[in-house]
Amino acid sequence: MAIDSTTVEMMFEVGIDLKNRRIYFGATELDEVEGCEVTWRSCEMVVRAIHLLENDSVHKPIELHISSPGGDAYEMLRLVDVIEASPCQIKFFGSGKIMSSATWIMAVCDERYLYRNARILLHDGPSTSTITAAGKEIDFRIDAEENHRLQNQLNKMYADNSRMPEEFYRLVVKRDCFLSAEETVALGLADKILEPKKRGNLRRMRIALLNKEVDKAEMGRLVKKLYARVDEARVPTKIEIHTSHEKFDSKVFVEKPIEDKEKPAEQTAQPVSEELAIVQTVKSEP
């Protein structure tokens, strides 16, 4: 299927896939190094994209794809308000880093998906203080009160969109709290982990290679040479190599048929009696 130039331009210049109703968070200009941060500009682009897709249809969901270290709490709250006011269902897809302000964007979306290697960071809201040592005492108090109000608001937002109470978040965000995707789902801040596809059909060349008989003596010499290359003196006496059982799915395939359709045989080789023994095994996956 041909992809027209307008589609490419929208995707790579402003991060919007109109056909599939996907928004890719963050600025895309090459000169904007921190384009994935939560800033006025990155949030403004998402707000405009949401409004554009709402005008197209209020009955179709909108996907929001994010990897972000976080950023401005107030800009995040603006985007949160727009998401919660939208008549469309907003689906969150998080990968890479979902940290700081990005976690509240995740929390309020209607469906929240994480890729399995995503890393989530909860911590308290950023300080709003810009007062120098020369600032008046009352200015420090005003900023402290605003920081306290903002943090209470953010803790409530976590609690309202998960299974844990505000007190829990008040305690854990005192320090940087890193979470796995599984832990985030368990807390109720996300709904589901996106599992990888069964890729066996796409890896026939790899499977054939990894299931070939290994020249154990040659492999032993290679391993010792590589240990020496990185100045590692602690060379183990036996190293185990293995190949995995790939999972196959009839729905995952490449259009061009692959000539070699033979299923590779499982092999188990015995270690050789050398100083460095190499064992070839087949690792079974459930």
CA gyration radius, whole angstroms:
26 Å
Helix content: 25-40%
Return the CATH topology of the largest domain: 2-enoyl-CoA Hydratase, Chain A, domain 1
What would CATH call the class of the largest domain? Alpha Beta
End-to-end distance: 36 Å
Estimate what percentage of residues fall within beta strands. Answer: 15-25%
Q: Please identify which CATH superfamily of the largest domain we are dealing with.
A: 2-enoyl-CoA Hydratase, Chain A, domain 1
Shape: extended
Query: How many domains, as an integer?
Result: 2
Structural category is alpha/beta
* Main sheet characteristics: 8 strands, mixed
SSE arrangement, N to C: HEEHEHEHEEHHEHEHHEE
In round numbers, the mean pLDDT is 85
Oligomer: single chain
Number of strands: 10
pLDDT under 50 segments (min length 5)?
Answer: 265-273
Number of helices: 9
CATH architectural category of the largest domain:
Alpha-Beta Complex
Give an overview of the whole structure.
The chain has helices spanning 5-14, 40-56, 73-85, 101-108, 137-160, 166-172, 181-187, 204-210, 216-229; strands at 16-17, 22-24, 62-68, 90-99, 111-115, 119-122, 177-180, 192-194, 238-244, 277-283. Helix 3 (73-85) runs parallel beside helix 4 (101-108). It folds into two domains: 5-194, 2-enoyl-CoA Hydratase, Chain A, domain 1, CATH 3.90.226.10; 200-283, no CATH class. It is 37% helix and 18% strand. The longest helix is centred in the middle third of the chain and has 24 residues, at 137-160. Strands 1, 2, 3, 4, 5, 6, 7 and 8 form an eight-stranded mixed β-sheet that branches. Strand 4 (90-99), helix 4 (101-108) and strand 5 form a beta-alpha-beta unit. The chain is extended. By secondary structure, it is an alpha/beta fold. The protein is built from nine helices and ten strands.
